[in-house]
């Protein structure tokens, strides 16, 4: 057991947080535009109607925009990191460490996406600049039929 991790952080392991989002055509078009995606299946409804999808669909990593809850800045941790990784550990700054994504199907306008995030683990390692704390969060995305859409496992690193 990692004694540098406070008990109040350890008890959060396994706790789920669920959020729901209604996807619009505009959401898909704006996301595609924001990432510079030029494939017309993401913004041209006439073109998309002739594809296997039959409608515009979100780019592969579209669900990333549902990973974190939209909260006012004053509710974020001091370092501005998402509230979902505000785990009570003795560290103040957060950086993204790694992320792996599995995509099971594309998101369509009209889908209701449920994002279920769970804190999978919190542990520490000694780094060159001091103690590093690792936070592992898994988020599963499903549609209104309960079908899996995507899954992300993300690692965040906090330090003093």
Overview features:
160 residues, mainly beta, Thiol Ester Dehydrase, Chain A, five-stranded antiparallel β-sheet, 3 helices
Explain the overall architecture.
The protein has helices at 7-10, 25-34, 45-49; strands spanning 16-22, 93-103, 112-127, 130-142, 148-159. The relative contact order is 0.23. Helix content is 12%, strand content 37%. By secondary structure, it is mostly beta strands. The longest helix is centred in the N-terminal third of the chain and has 10 residues, at 25-34. It is built from three helices and five strands. A hairpin with a 2-residue loop joins β3 (112-127) and β4 (130-142). A five-stranded antiparallel sheet has the order 1-3-4-5-2, with no helix packed on it. The protein has a single domain (7-159), classed as Thiol Ester Dehydrase, Chain A.
CATH topology: Thiol Ester Dehydrase, Chain A
Total beta strand runs: 5
Please give the count of helices: 3
Biggest β-sheet strands, sense, barrel: 5 strands, antiparallel
* Shape label: elongated
If you compute it from the alpha carbons, what radius of gyration comes out, rounded to the nearest whole angstrom? 18 Å
Residue share in β-strands = 35-45%
> What fraction, in percent, of the residue positions are helical?
10-25%
CATH superfamily descriptor: Hotdog Thioesterase
According to CATH, what is the class? Alpha Beta
CATH architecture: Roll
Average residue-wise pLDDT: 91
Give the count of structural domains.
Answer: 1
């Amino acid at each position: 057991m990692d004694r540098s991790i406070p008990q109040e952080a350890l008890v959060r392991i396994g706790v789920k947080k669920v959020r729901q989002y209604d996807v619009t055509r505009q959401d898909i078009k704006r996301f595609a535009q924001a990432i510079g995606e030029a494939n017309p299946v993401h913004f041209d409804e006439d073109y998309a109607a002739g594809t296997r999808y039959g409608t515009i669909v979100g780019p592969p990593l579209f669900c990333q925009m549902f990973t974190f809850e939209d909260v006012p800045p004053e509710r974020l941790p001091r370092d501005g990191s998402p509230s979902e990784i505000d785990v009570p550990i003795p560290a103040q700054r957060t950086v993204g460490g790694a992320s792996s994504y599995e995509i099971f199907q594309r998101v369509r306008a009209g889908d209701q996406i449920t994002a279920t995030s769970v804190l999978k683990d919190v542990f520490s390692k000694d780094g060159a600049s001091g103690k590093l704390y690792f936070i592992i969060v898994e988020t599963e995305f499903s549609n209104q039929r309960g079908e899996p859409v995507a899954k992300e496992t993300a690692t965040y690193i906090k330090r003093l």
